[in-house]
């Protein structure tokens, strides 16, 4: 399990992430939601080991992150950034191959093919990464991070995603989240920053609501995703309903006309 | 073809490209060895080389042998080593800084190395402790220290919070270059006539003063580090995504950075100490390789070494022959070819980013 306790990160005395506790089990998908500037990306950077915080404790499968080398860390977690541009004309397949890093894999060709087929990027393999569309780039990046943790291992692995679907149309968004959900069977825990509340409601097992660097609510998706919690987090009127066809939560953001919302803001 | 695995077919292509470049390099070498103020037929060149390796009985006269073995072979080997070092250092630095405009000259490595070399050339007679300890290695080591110091300064100026700002990097390079130029002027100002004469000859940037000693030092301090840089291909590939992303896939970014900066400075410093500043090889060569064969550093690094060696051997051949029996400084040739290419590169990059 990926466990963070009491992590704290400040820039010039201003807390960006304030005493946050995060718990991610293998086999579950945790969606992190929150308004812009809430500290979501910073939280992800701390969890990935990219930035270290003075206070707090992060453990991957019980091992403190401080004691793990970049190589050891790469074996237990993969990170997909929001944007990734390459400085040189790499082909799509070469980008995916970068996910292999320094790992030794018995049959890398089969692995690349399997993952790229899964992410619908196999037919893009010989194209230059820089010339792909935004959505295609994100799928190639997804393939790259999947390659890193795809092979079944005796220990759980984790995938950290920073808005993996931001440049995609709805069909692609669902496709990506379906792929990501299937990873749960591979003993992988997923933490994803998601912008689309409905997407989170449809796929997340657990949800964390982040505001001003503080995790306000964390727990089972159905328990956390209430209109009251969401309204307080986003300072905007939100209604949560159920899809009569399949009981899935539907989150509707409303026009801000009701004077009632002012009370919420003050509260 | 389909059954051939992707990675194997790529290795096959890489071997083909490197083999082709190696063959080209050999042909240019034979051509360069036969041409010059004193002409030696190509078959005699091959005969002498083979007999040196103990593979053939040779029929040649002593004059041909001496010109070839004592003058031309060291000179061409030196130009190939320096060209190769500049090529691979350019490729590695471009990869590290994630920018195709980076060149050892632009980020101050060459001028820093030149400054320290000049200090040694002018004040060398006062630095007896140093010269006694390092002997023939003193000048290369001084140049290396200068190159390392400037690359370190430029890097520090341009980076903060684990990121390197490329525009800051280029500006810092401009500043360091200007400072080094001014300090070189200052050193010359205080030097005596012999020292200034020595400096002038050195700064013309030619490979005419080659000897077997120099070739040996260059091999030790420029070819061996190339091998170490070659091994960093994985790290440099990952760094193309950015430092954070390279860290995420398990690269020890600080280590790769250190190795590339240290050994590039060493190689360029040694090159500069042997031949003066030779510009643009480190810029053009990796770019051409990427343009034709793609960006994978597994191929870019070794191919840049071979193409750099090839280009500088050709440039040296031209330098020796176009104004024969006089010689043109090789730095002039590479700059005359390199500048227009650099301008084309800048224009092209602007077009693609818009």
Comma- or semicolon-separated keywords:
heterodimer; A: 267 residues; alpha/beta; 6-stranded mixed sheet; 4-stranded antiparallel sheet; 10 helices; 33% helix; B: 354 residues; mainly alpha; two-stranded antiparallel sheet; 15 helices; 2 strands; 77% helix
Per-chain topology:
The complex is a heterodimer of chains A (267) and B (354).
Chain A: E1 2-11, E2 14-24, E3 29-33, H1 40-48, E4 55-60, E5 63-64, H2 70-76, E6 77-80, H3 92-98, H4 108-118, H5 134-149, E7 157-162, H6 170-182, E8 188-193, H7 197-203, E9 206-211, E10 214-220, H8 221-224, H9 227-234, E11 238-242, E12 249-253, H10 260-266
Helix pairs in contact in A: 3-5, 4-5
Chain B: H1 6-34, H2 42-52, H3 62-97, H4 109-123, H5 128-134, H6 138-158, E1 159-160, E2 163-164, H7 166-190, H8 193-203, H9 212-230, H10 233-239, H11 243-248, H12 253-275, H13 281-293, H14 297-321, H15 330-353
Helix pairs in contact in B: 1-2, 1-3, 1-14, 3-9, 3-12, 3-13, 3-14, 4-6, 4-7, 4-8, 4-12, 6-7, 6-12, 9-12, 13-14
Protein architecture, described:
The complex is a heterodimer of chains A (267) and B (354). Chain A has 267 residues and is α/β, with parallel strands linked by helices. Chain A is built from ten helices and twelve strands. Chain A has helices at residues 40-48, 70-76, 92-98, 108-118, 134-149, 170-182, 197-203, 221-224, 227-234, 260-266, and strands at residues 2-11, 14-24, 29-33, 55-60, 63-64, 77-80, 157-162, 188-193, 206-211, 214-220, 238-242, 249-253. In chain A, the strands form three sheets. In chain A, strands 6-7-8-3-9-10 form a six-stranded mixed sheet, sandwiched between helices. In chain A, strand 4 (55-60) and strand 5 (63-64) form a beta hairpin. Chain A is globular and about 55 Å long. In chain A, 42% of the residues are buried. Chain B has 354 residues and is mainly α. Chain B is built from 15 helices and two strands. Chain B has helices spanning 6-34, 42-52, 62-97, 109-123, 128-134, 138-158, 166-190, 193-203, 212-230, 233-239, 243-248, 253-275, 281-293, 297-321, 330-353, and strands at 159-160, 163-164. A two-stranded antiparallel sheet of chain B has the order 1-2. In chain B, strand 1 and strand 2 (163-164) form a beta hairpin. In chain B, helix 1 crosses helix 2 and helix 9 runs antiparallel to helix 12. Chain B is globular, with a radius of gyration of 21 Å. At the A-B interface, helix 2, helix 3, helix 4 and helix 5 of A face helix 10 and helix 11 of B.
